[in-house]
Amino acid sequence: MTITSLTDTVFGDLTDECDLEGDVLAPADGNAGSGPDTALCQVTRAVMGNAGAQHHNVATIVVADDDDNTGTASDDATVGITDVLPTITVDKDASVASVSEPGAPVVFTAEMTNTSAEPVTITSVTDAIGGGAPFDITTASPPVIATDCGAAIGTVVAPGTTYSCTFSVVVSGNAGASVTDTVRFTVTDDEGNQATDDDDETVDIKDSAPGLEVTKEASVSEVSEPGADVEFTFTVRNTSVEDVTITSLVDSVFGDLSAECGLAGDVLAPGATTECKITRFIAGNAGHEHRNVVVVTGSDDEGNETTDEDDESVDVDDVLPTVEVTKEASVSEVSEPGADVEFTFTVRNTSVEDVTITSLVDSVFGDLSAECGLAGDVLAPGATTECTITRFVGGNAGDVHHNTVVVTSRRRRAEHHHRRRRRDRRCGRLGSRAGGHQGGFGVGGVRAGCGCGVHLHGSQHLGRGRDDHVAGGFGVR
What we know:
Blueprint: E1 2-8, E2 12-13, H1 15-18, E3 54-64, E4 70-80, E5 88-94, E6 98-100, E7 103-114, E8 120-129, E9 135-136, E10 144-147, E11 156-157, E12 162-172, E13 178-188, E14 194-206, E15 212-218, E16 222-224, E17 227-238, E18 244-251, E19 255-256, H2 258-261, E20 267-268, E21 273-283, E22 289-299, E23 305-317, E24 323-329, E25 333-335, E26 338-349, E27 355-362, E28 366-367, H3 369-372, E29 378-379, E30 384-394, E31 400-410, E32 415-416, E33 446-457
Parallel strand pairs: 6-14, 16-23, 25-33
Antiparallel strand pairs: 1-2, 1-3, 3-4, 5-7, 7-12, 8-9, 8-11, 8-13, 10-12, 13-14, 15-17, 17-21, 18-19, 18-20, 18-22, 22-23, 24-26, 26-30, 27-28, 27-29, 27-31, 31-32, 31-33
């Protein structure tokens, strides 16, 4: 018989591919000399289908004898499709290898490659930081800061292709720590078989130096000599990114204030502040500048130390000296033609600093500085000194002996004069600031004057005279 064709219900006409057409088959009589009684053809085809499916096909051969009689024969074959589980590989990279403590956002890139023979569908993408619980990275909710992985769920990835997305989270920790971050993809195939894979990336935490800022403020910028109480406020702020513990607060003039302020051991969170107020007496002469510097010291949890300083100045203003002179006569009247009268001069320092008496001059008795021995005397604030002299006061009845004494004092820097009158023979306190008295007196010291009146009478009693007039042209000062 001669083969005329070979066809398959699935693969079609295989006659040419198998090159069987025209082949003659001998009878199957066991006589090898008459030729082969079989013919063989092999073809290779991809058999595809889902798991559980059956590939079934039938091959049919047609033959003819030399009388043109034809015959056919058929046979079938079945190939079952077995299930193959999906496989994937995941790769993860960080945008930086390290961040400074206490932490910072890091961008991670996550890639998933389908290494299986059929498409897979992404069903979840999660991340876990430092071995913690996994969290979804397809939405921007804490701890995820930002993400473009939102389209991952439901994406179909063909065999051999890769899906990639990025997301950002904060990686935090103490200096020297290493934080491992793990991303995981889960996929399924069309049979519902699931595959997962993950990859991790490590980010190191670098040490960050602590920082403190101290400010020092005085309640006033100046005080009058010889000084006054001033309140100082010290404010300390943590300018670093981690907690800082204050270890000391030391002032260049006031010394160690740590215990007084109670700040030592205080822990300041980033950006937090604390303060302390103290009161000190600031003393000095006019023109003196009180300047001091405060230094704060602190450390972080790694023992790194930080310091900062700030200064403040308080000026001491000039205060002009003042003195008070009183002049008293031992009697308020004498009988004509006159008599000896004792005059007492008392000088008191009414200012806030030492003054030196430079002169004591009477309008009638002249310069008494040498006689009284007061020139050069230094009077402390509130201190007094006095001098007593005796002079003959003469005149006609009704005359008034009126004279005025002027004391001049100075301090180390300059001299100032001032003068005033009273209507009594006892003079009160006298003082004037520099340049404040009409008459061209000097600057920087003080001058005070006091007048006394003594009446001369005949048979009648005369009252005390006024120190602002001279009766009968007779006056002593």
